[in-house]
Amino acid sequence: MLNLSIPPHILATVYNGNIIGIMRSQVNDPRIEQQISVYFQDLLKEMGYIAAISNEMTDLLHADVYYQQITFLCENCINTSSAKLIYHFNDYIMDYILQICTDIIPEASLFTSDIKRLQHYEKKKKIDLLNTLIRYLDNECNVTLTAQELYLHRTSLVKRLARIEKLLNHSLDDPNYRLYLRICLRCLKMQK
Length: 192
Description:
Layout: E1 10-15, E2 18-23, H1 30-47, E3 51-53, H2 63-76, E4 86-88, H3 93-104, H4 107-110, H5 113-125, H6 129-138, H7 143-150, H8 154-168, H9 175-191
Parallel strand pairs: 3-4
Antiparallel strand pairs: 1-2
Helix pairs in contact: 7-8
């Protein structure tokens, strides 16, 4: 009965109370992929379901890996209060990697005293330095774009970034340090 409402290039079954599907897709045409996506989204909305989609399966012998990706999404990422219907593993891969790391090493031990000092200063002075840092890193260190997003004058943002660098005791010009900061900030987001 389940497969009657699903297109012929998708095989679906119920496993552990979830609908698990495999979609055969060798389509390299973005227009057709978009049509499939719209159809799938409409089907989910009509049926009242949310989908978790793994990375593209390249080897059926590794189906367990793709199932782990879906399971991770179902257990950690799907927000039933959200209007979002489709969750792609690729969008949450950093969360997955961090969860694996923090299963071995506690999150708090990943943060140096620099990060803790920044958090303490932010709480004490009531200045949103973490959000400033997040926006700055998300904008690939583009001061003009970050200032616009934060509704700050460019000079004010430059002063705030200088304060952040001083508190971190490290330059934001160092790409490895920026990566470390991104990881720490992602961990903080996952804690919330």
